[in-house]
């Protein structure tokens, strides 16, 4: 796999700094039951990295001590971590809002038949990847039969009350482009998704989030192989919207890797660009119990244009 960090280090991306921390985004492991072409984590069935129970408990101590409002759990398929349910249950006992970055198909895997019921019982918000509303496009990006399994999972979640009017169970979908171009307008694509999934499959959801593909790990390596890396970076730079700098996710979020080390965002985590405070890199989550990171400068590189291009994109979809 081609390394993209050497191509991203030199940048003129504007300097930005942190604000008050309100979200801890925790990557509990890189193992996944899928191996998607656009994956910036390079997750897959053969990955072994997993967060230990000890580090999970450190995360819970930080949530309690700092009274952090949101825990955003990601992977890989985060549910494959054996301590996933412990983390979610204990965080909910602290009245922390929990988001599960779910790939949907995990809900149908052997041994996970009761996972959807667990998520509903804990009132976990589900943000699920579904890069299109057609079988052809989804299977092309994510693998054979992924679309049918995803629809089955969505119907299972709807049956439990997810995205059903009058319930508190939130179900959001995530769109990524199939190739090296920017996503379309989020509000229009959301309407298309709701019409197509509702009409043809009886599926409902709350929001659609559109995210730009990041030129790192598997997707970035593919761009290099195809000779499209430079052109994609030029596209991101040309579409930079300065207004998005005010609302990028890294201002109020910290990313935690499976070892407990801190990063300004999940993308920096994958590139190995650590969070730096007072000149000290690679701070551990346990240090959040005794130190502040508010107002610290955010580590930037050329890939940051991916969050500010066009409508912008972050973990909550379009910014503009």
Write structural notes for this entry.
By secondary structure, this protein is an alpha/beta fold. It has a single domain, classed as TIM Barrel. 32% of the residues lie in helices and 12% in strands. The strands form 2 sheets. It has an 8-stranded mixed sheet with strand order 6-5-4-3-2-1-7-8. A hairpin with a 2-residue loop joins β9 and β10. The longest helix has 16 residues. The two termini are 33 Å apart.
Layout: helices, strands, pairs:
Elements (H helix, E strand, L loop, with lengths): L4 H4 L14 E5 L25 H14 L3 E5 L9 H10 L3 E6 L12 H7 L3 E5 L5 H8 L3 H14 L11 E5 L10 H16 L5 E4 L6 H10 L2 H10 L14 E4 L5 E2 L2 H6 L4 E2 L2 E2 L23 H4 L12
Parallel strand pairs: 1-2, 1-7, 2-3, 3-4, 4-5, 5-6
Antiparallel strand pairs: 7-8, 9-10
